[in-house]
Predict the 3D structure of the following.
Amino acid sequence: MAQGRGSATRCLGVGGLLAVCLLLGAADAATHRVDWSLSFSADSWSRGKNFRAGDVLEFNYDPSVHNVVAVDAADYYSCGSSGRAYSSGNDRITLGSGANYFICSLNGHCGMGMKMAVNAS
Ligand SMILES: [Cu+2]
């Protein structure tokens, strides 16, 4: 899975002399892999990363013991889980602009710290 973002230039040689170049937009969405587990540390994971609306978080985890619930701020702090739940073990969730909150609602894991908040510009 590609990580990070950046503009890319693709050139097609034509007859060895001319080149046709397409400048792909610099706003390519990035995919950020999340190894979602009880030992996941949102603080250390997010350090040094920049997030933009449209970026994708790819949550990888064992679905027999974890899930991902996209929650609001109140549920994030209280470990409520009224938001949309994901449970495939390999969930790709697109970030919206502003704060995005995720918790694991299974087995009391949120209360043990299995949660994160991501701010997307
Ligand atoms: Cu869990």
Remarks:
- The longest strand covers residues 8-14.
- The domain at 30-120 is CATH 2.60.40.420 (Immunoglobulin-like).
